[in-house]
Design goal:
Elements (H helix, E strand, L loop, with lengths): L1 E2 L9 E5 L2 H7 L2 H10 L1 E4 L6 H7 L5 E4 L8 H4 L7 E4 L10 H6 L2 E3 L3 H20 L1 H10 L3 H4 L12 E5 L3 H12 L3 E5 L5 H7 L2 E2 L2 H7 L2 E4 L13 H4 L7 E4 L8 H10 L3 E4 L19 E3 L8 H19 L7 E2 L9
Parallel strand pairs: 2-3, 2-4, 4-5, 5-6, 7-8, 7-10, 8-9, 10-11, 11-12, 12-13
Antiparallel strand pairs: 1-3, 6-14
Length: 341
């Protein structure tokens, strides 16, 4: 456990449960200085160590968490006698806080807005790659295929001439919609919480899931991971995709039956671009790695330098607002616990 020097008695204390490598990415010198000037910091390098967190929490007014931090449950709350805020540097808070915190009146904030743009940009890049079969050409060239055979691929299409289906008008879904519409794509959305008025404002059509799947050349998944969305795309749904269609998933593998998807792409009927998987790290021998019609990235869609710095700045801003007696900007309530990760 490390901490900044105490600059005076009675200063508010903040626990930063973020490992060194992420601190370097999240907090610029200027942002860290703002936090250190405002509070006494207790910094936990071993951010997964529950005992270290329990020892640090007494007397602290705020806790900043990162992926992998212990869950703030009744046991930790019992020693967090002054805790008023948990500021998470990610999006989903369910892995890091229980309902006990909300019942105790601890404010909980998240930084999901910071992730929407880079994830949407990767989903856009995936969409363009699938439409132009870039992944297939890359596989063929790296395999050493003859020039003529390497240039063979299913029909290619422009985004502006394509129907794009979006599953989930989330923050990221909306950012993606804005990007693909700028290319001229015709966009449909399925989302039980999106009204016709909101759809009109977004410039999209509202469709039932089955119709969206049947009529889209690209389907991009941007729904939250909840009990209700578990494997919402199974074998029957994937079978509705037109031949040659592409599936983009930068959200969660939770949403797609991976075995059913593997069967479809193995058959070569559709293509897929994936940033998320049931098993992470994806095993070296996984069949996805061998298929020329599947584009893979190792869960890095939100990994831009700019995004990481926004995550840190968002959490620090929430802490500073607490210390100044101001309301949080990105508070969530206990209903956020339904989003599992």
């Amino acid at each position: 456990m490390t901490g900044s020097a105490d600059r005076g008695a009675g200063r508010d204390r903040v626990v930063v449960c973020v490992p060194p490598e992420l601190r370097a990415q999240f907090f610029t010198d200027a942002v860290w200085r703002r936090l250190a000037d405002a509070a006494e910091l207790t910094v936990l390098d071993e951010h997964r160590d529950r005992a270290a967190l329990a020892a640090a929490l007494p007397g602290a007014r705020a806790l900043v968490t990162a992926w992998g931090a212990p869950r703030l449950d009744a046991g930790l709350l019992a020693v967090a006698d002054r805790l008023e805020l948990l500021a998470h540097t990610g999006s989903a808070v369910a892995p890091y806080v229980t309902e006990d915190a909300f019942l105790r009146g601890v404010r909980v904030t998240q930084a999901g807005d910071a992730m929407a743009r880079p994830v949407a940009e990767v989903a856009l890049a995936f969409s363009l790659a699938l439409l132009h079969r870039i992944h297939r050409f890359d596989h063929a060239m790296r395999r050493g295929d003859h020039w003529e055979s390497a240039g063979q691929a299913p029909p290619r299409h422009e985004l502006g001439a394509s129907a794009v289906g979006v599953i989930g008008a989330s923050r990221t879904g909306r950012a993606y919609i804005e990007l693909v519409r700028a290319f001229g794509a015709r966009v449909s959305v399925t989302d039980p919480f999106l009204s016709e008025a909101d759809a009109a404002e977004l410039g999209v059509r509202l469709l039932p899931l089955d119709e969206l799947l049947r009529t889209s050349r690209i389907v991009a998944v941007h729904a939250p991971a909840t009990e209700a969305t578990r494997r919402m795309l199974g074998a029957p749904q994937l079978a509705l995709l037109p031949d040659g269609a592409g599936l983009v998933n930068t959200a969660r593998s939770w949403l797609v039956d991976e075995d059913a998807l593997l069967a479809e792409v193995r058959d070569g009927r559709i293509d897929a671009a994936l940033d998320v998987f049931d098993a992470e790290p994806l095993p070296a021998g996984h069949p996805f790695r061998q298929l020329p019609n599947v584009l893979l990235t190792p869960h890095q869609a939100a990994g831009t330098a700019e995004c990481r710095e926004r995550l840190g700045e968002s959490a620090v801003t929430e802490v500073l607002r607490l210390l100044a007696g101001e309301e949080p900007l990105h508070a969530v309530d206990a209903t956020a616990l339904t989003r599992l990760f």
